[in-house]
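Sequence design from tokenized structure. All designs in this work follow the same two-part layout: the structure record, then the generated sequence. An example of the structure record is given first.
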């Protein structure tokens, strides 16, 4: 590679990291502001159906090229479908913040991945001369988006390859990691603070595992069964929404009405939004489930599952990761109290294993668990995550490559 070409690539990759990290910072700031505004004006939840209708009309009439999201990314990588325009980044950012402002139960990784892929693909048009080079920039963009939004650059690098069904141990891993690290620092430079998670105690993670091995086995089996239910419910509900309500606006409007109904039935707003910020001191939140003294209601995981399945199936934008964390941690917390097991350990394992099994990204999930919960979790994380993923079947919440 000539010096001029090398300089061009260095500038392009630096620009990518800065842009994606800054986009992630803007996105996280927007999510925080939207969530706090919803707390301050709780009646906004009743406008969710109208927000869905507006969103549906936009995507039907103005956003067809950016509406397919993860399908577009995987289609670009595997089928050479050049369908990842730069407009995908602002569209998905605004739509996801809108979803959370009005109380939709969604995550943020889908938005992070799509923003990163759109920016990486757009930069690739100016520097990539081959299909392989273009894909590399796409992978780097995905890694940067995921790593910057969650503050987990190592998991972001692995996720980019695992999500796109590519070999993790390859030459692509190093550039993905470097860009993810740089994007994470760019995000932090804007003053963003990521969601803090308690570090699981050393005595719970590496010692005393043998006496509770059977309890861990029971928990893993339950996580796998619950994951099968979540994935099946997601696919079934999404297909029925598309069949019964072909128009995007009507689909999202009806979904919004159902979410409002669930909210009134549950009698609490704890299952709306991301589930990481507390509206009240006693609110159910993801970080609280990892507290040894916190006993989650036995139905908490099922409520969040219902809210999330309806929100995403109806066409509201976001992702699955944080709701999956919430569901898994709540289920792990309840199992720990039922089995008389360490609460923080089981909630942490549930948080990661449920995510891994639902997305079929076990290695990225393990890295994420270590980055968020501490290296002490390595041994039980590896065992429980891999087994839960294996037992959960072959279906994932993400699109199958064969269906693109």
């Amino acid at each position: 590679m000539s010096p001029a070409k090398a300089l061009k690539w260095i500038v392009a990759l630096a620009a990518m990291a800065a842009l994606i990290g800054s986009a992630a910072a803007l996105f996280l700031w927007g999510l925080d502001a939207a969530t706090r505004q919803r707390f301050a004006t709780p009646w906004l939840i009743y406008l969710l159906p109208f927000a869905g209708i507006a969103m549906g009309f936009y995507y039907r009439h103005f956003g067809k090229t950016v509406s397919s999201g993860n399908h577009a990314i995987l289609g670009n990588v595997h089928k050479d479908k050049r369908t990842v325009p730069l407009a995908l980044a602002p569209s998905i950012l605004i739509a996801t913040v809108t979803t959370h402002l009005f109380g939709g139960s969604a995550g943020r990784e889908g938005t992070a991945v799509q923003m990163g892929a759109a920016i990486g693909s757009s930069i690739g048009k100016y520097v990539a001369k081959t299909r392989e080079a273009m894909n590399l920039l796409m992978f780097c963009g995905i890694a940067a988006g995921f790593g910057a939004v969650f503050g987990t650059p190592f998991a972001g690098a692995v996720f980019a390859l695992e999500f796109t069904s590519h070999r993790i141990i390859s030459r692509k891993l190093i550039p993905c990691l470097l860009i993810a690290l740089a994007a994470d620092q760019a995000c932090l430079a804007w003053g963003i603070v990521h969601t803090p998670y308690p570090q699981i105690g050393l005595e719970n993670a590496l010692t005393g595992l043998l006496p509770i091995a059977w309890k861990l086995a029971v928990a893993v089996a339950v996580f796998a069964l619950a994951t099968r239910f979540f994935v099946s419910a997601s696919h079934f509900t999404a297909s029925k929404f598309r069949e019964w309500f072909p128009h995007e606006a009507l689909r999202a409007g009806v979904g919004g009405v159902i979410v409002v109904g669930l909210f009134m039935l549950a009698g609490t707003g704890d299952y709306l939004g991301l589930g990481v910020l507390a509206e009240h001191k006693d609110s159910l939140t993801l970080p609280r489930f990892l507290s040894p003294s916190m006993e989650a209601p036995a139905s908490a995981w099922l409520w969040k599952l219902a809210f999330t399945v309806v929100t995403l199936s109806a066409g509201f934008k976001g992702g699955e990761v944080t709701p999956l964390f919430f569901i898994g941690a709540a289920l792990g917390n309840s199992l720990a109290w039922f089995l008389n097991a360490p609460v923080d350990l089981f909630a942490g394992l549930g948080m990661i294993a449920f995510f891994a099994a639902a997305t079929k990204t076990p290695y990225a999930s393990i890295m994420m668990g270590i980055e968020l919960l501490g290296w002490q979790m390595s041994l039980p994380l590896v065992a429980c995550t891999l087994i839960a993923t294996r037992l959960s079947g072959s279906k994932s919440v993400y699109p199958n490559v064969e269906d693109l």
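The CA atoms of residues 58 and 249 lie 8 Å apart. We note this feature because it recurs in several other targets discussed in the main text.
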